[in-house]
Amino acid sequence: MPPWSRPEPFGAWVRLDDRTLVAVDHALAARLGVPAGEPADAARPPRPLEVHLAVNARCHAPCADCYLDARPDGAEPSLGELRQRLASVRELGASTVAFGGGEPLLRDDLGELARYARSLGLVPVMTTSGFGLKEERADELRAFAQINVSHDGVGGAYAAVRGFDGARAAERAIEILARAGIAVGVNLVLTRRSVEQLEATAERVADLGAGELQLLRYKPQGRAAGLVYFEARLSSAQREALWPAITAVVHRRRLSVRIDCALVPLLSESLVAEPNAAELLASLGVFGCEAGRHLGGLDVAGREAPCSFSPSSTEEIDHFRAYHASPPEPCASCALFPVCRGGCQVVSRHASNTFSPDPECPRVQRHRAEASA
């Protein structure tokens, strides 16, 4: 029997280790000792494989674009409340729980929470700014399968994105975690300024001991939900150059690269010449919006959300599922839709106040231009 499994109509999800989750058919599931899944039922909502858990809304960093608008006096649930929420994540059938904030490191009981998640059969991971992390604190964090440190770029890019220079604090945290033997990744938010330093930043964090680079799309949420978003988002030329830059980082074989689900539509034009582009992306583990499906969230008040960047309510989750089930054109007939799933609805609603195809997708832009001609 594998360490974690979840029966499904197709067979089962099986976790082989902290980093490997695979889908298996009925025959292999039976050989592994996984009970048979229930028959497919269109009325039964999907269950998340990963849940993002906000452990506080406190943070001392003055990031100009904080998606949560976290503050030093932000809310912080009790240890008991978070233990109950971790138990509910287990009941949902999730495999991974991602701790976020605010700034999780402001909690003294962070290691205890990670160990409790492990006791429930969950794999805990975390994202942090790295501020205040010291060598002695790292030992308390060994229950985490991976800790990602936010670093928005070398050459002044960090300060340009966040409004202050926290690059050295982030780099010191990467070094501390790597020396402690904790798997460490780096979250890089791609903006008009930081994307120009993508390859240089990748080299720098690899030198510091990071093993993974997660590329995140800049989203109009929290403090970034204004005109500043349109000034900071990637230009058309930068979107076109993004896939070649990602490929260059991958080919150096120093870092594994993860691509934020919201980035997929921005890559669509670069992949148009690729045969079977959807299959290629799926084989690389690149998927579009999973909000309300394989991804879920619990905000700082314990309310369910489809993802960390969306409002918390069951109605919101239902809206995501309805859009994914029946998207409008050009998404409905796009070969990439099974992977892309219509793009980022946080971006769409910032632009149009409704669920709609991602307005920054080049294919969507071309479709709308042709329709209005």
Q: What's a quick, concise take on this entry?
A:
The chain is an alpha/beta fold and 373 residues long. It is 35% helix and 17% strand.
**What Rg is obtained from the alpha carbons, in whole angstroms?**
20 Å
Residue windows where pLDDT falls under 50 for at least 5 positions: none
Number of helices: 15
What is the average of the pLDDT values? 92
Structural class: alpha/beta
| Percent of sequence in beta strands | 15-25%
* Ends apart, CA distance between termini: 59 Å
In CATH terms, what is the fold-level topology of the domain at 45-259?
TIM Barrel
CATH class of the domain at 45-259: Alpha Beta
CATH architecture designation of the domain at 45-259: Alpha-Beta Barrel
The counted number of beta strands is 12
Written as H for each helix and E for each strand, in order along the chain, the element string is: EEEHEHEHEHEHHEHEHHEHHEEHHHH
Helix proportion = 25-40%
Q: How does the overall form come out from the CA principal axes?
A: globular
Query: CATH superfamily of the domain at 45-259, called what?
Result: Aldolase class I
Major beta sheet summary: 9 strands, mixed
Main features:
TIM Barrel, nine-stranded mixed sheet, globular, 373 residues, alpha/beta, 15 helices
Describe how the helices and strands are arranged:
Layout: E1 4-8, E2 11-17, E3 20-25, H1 26-31, E4 50-54, H2 79-92, E5 96-100, H3 110-119, E6 123-128, H4 135-138, E7 146-150, H5 157-162, H6 167-179, E8 184-190, H7 198-208, E9 212-217, H8 227-232, H9 236-251, E10 256-259, H10 264-267, H11 277-283, E11 295-298, E12 304-305, H12 314-325, H13 337-340, H14 345-352, H15 362-372
Parallel strand pairs: 4-5, 4-11, 5-6, 6-7, 7-8, 8-9, 9-10
Antiparallel strand pairs: 1-2, 2-3, 11-12
